[in-house]
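FORM 12-B: Structure-to-Sequence Request
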């Protein structure tokens, strides 16, 4: 049975369009780190927003000819929401502690470029984004990740207009070989954060009157590229009356 899930409440004769998107680049390139391990960054969200797309950064010379990338976004489940806390580090993981998490998005060995997603980020919760370009995946072998990291020093990102401190996150596994094992993402210090770029969106831009006989004139993905009427992915439908809506058609 075909079901349509809209990402907002559509009232009769009204449509609501969501805009206000920013591209957040994690720059500059500091140094490469090639291993069957994955690096990235983690942060506590200062506000709520949506991560609409992600992309692994360039900069590792060993992986300059790589055509694949692997990225995962997780939420740490057990951290204190009322005071700033830090996930266990590598020594804590080695001592048998874990950082329970929920995987919100995982792209495994997909083509380079922006990968669309629709990950809801909630104020005061803790998240990590890890990933990089990767070597060719060979069944039964561990796959190198061509990580590229920032120079040393504590840094901040502007996420949804908020200056947000972020730290290095690490996983001792290659995301090109599958999602990170349960509880194994960890805090890895204030320096050398892994470089994964994002597009974040928030806000409602307009509420427009529509008619019942409106027609679709264009379909685009969450970063504005023309798209087919693909199922099981969020798309923006633009109508002949100037209105638009974001929805997912699921089989």
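FORM 12-B RESPONSE
SEQUENCE OUT:
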């Amino acid at each position: 049975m075909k079901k349509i899930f809209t990402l907002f409440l559509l009232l009769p004769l009204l449509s609501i369009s969501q805009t206000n998107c920013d591209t957040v680049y994690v720059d500059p390139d500091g140094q490469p780190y090639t291993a069957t391990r994955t690096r990235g960054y983690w942060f506590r969200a200062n506000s709520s927003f949506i991560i609409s797309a992600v992309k692994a950064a360039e900069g590792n010379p060993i992986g300059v000819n790589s055509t694949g990338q692997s990225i995962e976004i997780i939420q740490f489940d057990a951290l204190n929401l009322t005071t700033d806390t830090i996930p266990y580090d590598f020594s804590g993981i080695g001592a048998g502690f874990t950082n329970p998490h929920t995987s919100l998005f995982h792209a495994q060995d997909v083509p380079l470029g922006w990968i669309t997603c629709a990950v809801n980020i909630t104020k005061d919760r803790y998240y990590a984004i890890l990933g990089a370009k990767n070597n060719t995946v060979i069944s039964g072998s561990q796959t190198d990740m061509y990580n590229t990291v920032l120079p040393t020093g504590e840094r901040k990102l502007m996420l949804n207009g908020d200056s947000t401190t972020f730290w290095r996150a690490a996983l001792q596994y290659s995301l090109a070989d599958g999602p990170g094992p349960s509880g194994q993402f960890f805090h890895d210090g204030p320096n050398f954060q892994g470089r994964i770029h994002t597009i974040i969106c928030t806000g409602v831009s307009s509420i427009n009157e529509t008619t019942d006989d409106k027609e679709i004139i264009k379909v685009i993905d969450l970063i504005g590229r023309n798209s087919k009427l693909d199922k099981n992915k969020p798309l923006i439908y633009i109508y002949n009356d100037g209105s638009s809506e974001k929805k997912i058609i699921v089989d």
